[in-house]
Amino acid sequence: MRSRKVQFLVISFLVMWSFITYYILLRNSNANDMTMQQQQQVKRLLPEALREDTKSLKLTRTLVEFLKFKYAGDQDQQTTTTPKISIVAAEISNELPEQALDKVMPATLKTTPAQIPNKTYLANGEPVIPILVFACNRVSVEKCLDNLVEYRPSIEQFPIIVSQDCGDERTKQVIQSFGSQVTLIEQPDLTDIFVLPKEKKFKGYYKIARHYGWALNTTFQIGFDFVVIVEDDLNVAPDFFEYFLGTHKLLKQDSSLWCVSAWNDNGKANVVDTSTPELLYRTDFFPGLGWMLTKELWAELSIKWPKSFWDDWIRHPEQRKDRVCIRPEISRTRTFGKIGVSNGLFFDKYLKHIKLSEDFVQFSKINTSYLLKENYDKTFLKQIYVLPLVTFEELRRNLIAIEGPVRIQYNTRDQYKRITRMLGLMDDFKSGVPRTAYHGIVSFYYNKRRVHLAPSANWKGYDLSWS
């Protein structure tokens, strides 16, 4: 009964509104009071008014269907199970089962809900670690996915979830061409983002932050303990998956660790030791570019996730809280994405020269306990400050008589930047932290020897003003 009353009221209102509109148009179209030009204008307006009237009727039918379902009781429903809801339609249809969507939602707005694999642990007790690939409008994501699929040891343990923003159809088709090898989820909020005029050029970073927040929420809500994040412009090394298999336990064992990254910011071929592909470090600098985090960390970060520049935000002391990441001597990722929101920043000078490891290291069979804070600090830090102290000129001109690792000391920001520029290392700071640094120490390989660019032994911590 209530349904019929609502239907009658809506239709009555529409009929009355249409009649009044039509009457006003006729009244204003009196030929006696009009010029020929005005009459022609009215003739053009009348069809438009009728088309709008037709649209209103269609809208009313849709509204009536919704109200009929909402108030008709249980006449058409024999079950009370929770319906599956399309992500795109969720905001306006969270009370409707799929059969009602067929009546209410236009076909162009309906999507099939993405079926993210929901197994979180294997039968042998090992965790399922999804690879979450962020994509937008680059069809070159195919190179990234080809690489991941090629080296993936187990589709069951490493499901590849591609999260696409932007709604670019060509990119979507490329992703879908991988069939059951990957799972595609689509960021539903494609609305524009308001930014101040002076920040208009940074709008892309706002959209990226929004995408990251949605995709990580969507993935972690399945129940995974770990997620590995990969951007659509990355290639990975043959042992990329093995790298995370051998290091994921460290994140649970050591509360001072908050990520494992496959990237070395100073990983250019001429400053890494290619004979030690198994070598890993602790670093205070958040590297990104292929990194793993835990559900506990995401629970902490998600409630305050920023609107833009998420990577710089995550490096701030308020987020980092003196926690560190694991990074490799030789990168397990390499970017081929020169074009993007950063407009090729650092690409030609640094990124395209990063060495991608070609070896396969069985990290899952290596004892990585040396990376735990209590072990690492006792050995690494102690060893650094007993090394011979040399100058950059002595290093550059190969005037050091002794064999083995050495130390170069820096005391000021300008001194650090001058030395790193001459060495071809990245010279910038984020929240006062140099790239790859641990306790201010940046380690690299030069003229066939290990070199540690370090502050004085009485170092007091990072200075935010150095950024």
Automatic annotation (TrEMBL):
Cofactor(s) the protein needs: Mn(2+)
EC numbers for this chain: 2.4.1.101
Keyword Cytoplasm assigned: yes
Catalysed reactions, as listed in the record: N(4)-(alpha-D-Man-(1->3)-[alpha-D-Man-(1->3)-[alpha-D-Man-(1->6)]-alpha-D-Man-(1->6)]-beta-D-Man-(1->4)-beta-D-GlcNAc-(1->4)-beta-D-GlcNAc)-L-asparaginyl-[protein] (N-glucan mannose isomer 5A1,2) + UDP-N-acetyl-alpha-D-glucosamine = N(4)-{beta-D-GlcNAc-(1->2)-alpha-D-Man-(1->3)-[alpha-D-Man-(1->3)-[alpha-D-Man-(1->6)]-alpha-D-Man-(1->6)]-beta-D-Man-(1->4)-beta-D-GlcNAc-(1->4)-beta-D-GlcNAc}-L-asparaginyl-[protein] + UDP + H(+)
InterPro entries reported in the protein's UniProt record: Glyco_trans_13, Glycosyltransferase_13, Nucleotide-diphossugar_trans
A GO biological-process term: mushroom body development
GO MF, one example: manganese ion binding
Free-text comment on the cofactor: The cofactor is mostly bound to the substrate.
Keywords attached to this entry: Cytoplasm, Disulfide bond, Glycosyltransferase, Golgi apparatus, Manganese, Membrane, Metal-binding, Signal-anchor, Transferase, Transmembrane, Transmembrane helix
Compartment annotation: Cytoplasm, Perinuclear region; Golgi apparatus membrane
Annotated transmembrane regions: 6-26
GO cellular component, one term: perinuclear region of cytoplasm
Topology in the lipid bilayer: Single-pass type II membrane protein
Pathway: Protein modification; protein glycosylation
Function: Initiates complex N-linked carbohydrate formation. Essential for the conversion of high-mannose to hybrid and complex N-glycans.
Family named by the database record: Belongs to the glycosyltransferase 13 family.
Protein name from the UniProt record: Alpha-1,3-mannosyl-glycoprotein 2-beta-N-acetylglucosaminyltransferase
Biological source species: Drosophila grimshawi (Hawaiian fruit fly)
Gene: Dgri\GH22116
